[in-house]
Amino acid sequence: MIESDAGPKPPNPHQVGSAVADQSGAAPGQAAGLQERTLQDRPRSPLALTIIAAIAVGAAITLLGPILKPLLIAVFLYFMIKPVAEELVRLGLRPYVAWFSLFGMVLIAFALVGRLVYNNAMSFQASWPTYEQEIVKRVKQVQPDAGESIGEITHLSAVDVFKYALTTTVSVFETSVLVFFYLLFIILSAGKLEPRVRRSFVGERGERIVGLTRKVIAGVEHFIKVKTAVNLGLGLTIAVILYPFGLDHWLLWAFLFAALNYITYIGSIAACVPTVLAAFVQLDMLPAVVLTTIVIAARIVWIDYLEIRFLGRSLNLDSILLFFWLAYWGWVWGVVGLVLAVPTLTSLKIVLAHIEATRGLASVMSEE
């Protein structure tokens, strides 16, 4: 017999599989099925799934902004008017009558307030050169060499602001139309959500989803209810404070306090800046200081005391995480993103806290 010099032949994979199956006492097909089931039953990492979900949601928010932005604004407005509509239903009105009556009143109120604010903004634009000259004059009294530089800065800032406001008018109108139709359909279909979930997920799973949805809705509704009440109170307080001092465009500054405070933490601080500047430009030093002190005191009472007290633990969010969240939403969607940032983060924390696998992540998101 002639022996080959090629060396030993490599083992046949099919023979090896058969041998392994024979040693384990199972057929090759059963062994493959056992291996597949073992891979499927292997526990998945909640952190990995959460990271993948966060990346997917971030990509959707970034890429689908023109679609999602008016939808989330409509959801935000829905939760603003929902408590009032439910109160009208308790007083005896039919649900559809209460909802659509309130819907019409909200549209009329927005139109009237928008008209008043627009008139004040246009008046402020017309009088801006006077403000600009006064700012330069006041700065020269303190630092003569800085007067010209301040004049250039204020001129460029005013031009940029008014140009931005003009170019975004069409975009705001288009978004408002989409928000109108989204809100209309949300009102029509909101009561059908729970029955649909129960039909789709029968038994205990459906009840868990319904319970979790109710908790998220209750959390967001409580946040928006308190926020809206505080904003209205703060705006009215600022209007009452500014009017006796004879400050021009006092209604515009009061509206800014009420609207910008929807941007948690930084909105009310930003609203103080134009009001204080207008006070020091238009009034003498002593009245300007008194007015600034009263405005800051009102802001502290409404925001740092009443708002924190009534919101309680719903704003128990890590400061760094909240700042990053505000920065991201502001970068993606601008002012609208800053307004929607905290309600979305609060909703996310509620969802994570009520899922066993992600409860630790909800704890990490908390300040305490």
Can you describe what's shown?
With 368 residues, the protein is mostly helical. The chain has a domain at 66-200. It is 82% helix and 0% strand. It contains 14 helices and no strands. Helix 4 (65-90) crosses helix 9 (204-242), helix 9 runs antiparallel to helix 12 and helix 10 (250-260) runs antiparallel to helix 11 (267-282). The longest helix has 48 residues, at 95-142. The N and C termini lie far apart (83 Å).
Structural class: mainly alpha
Range of strand content: under 5%
User: Mean pLDDT across all residues, rounded?
Assistant: 75
Helical amount: over 70%
Our Rg estimate from Cα atoms comes to 30 Å
Oligomer: single chain
Largest sheet: none
Q: Tell how many strands the DSSP assignment holds.
A: 0
* Low-confidence segments: 1-7, 13-29, 31-43
Q: Rough shape?
A: globular
Supply the number of helical segments. Answer: 14
Whole-Å distance between the termini?
A: 83 Å
Series of secondary-structure elements, N-terminal to C-terminal: HHHHHHHHHHHHHH
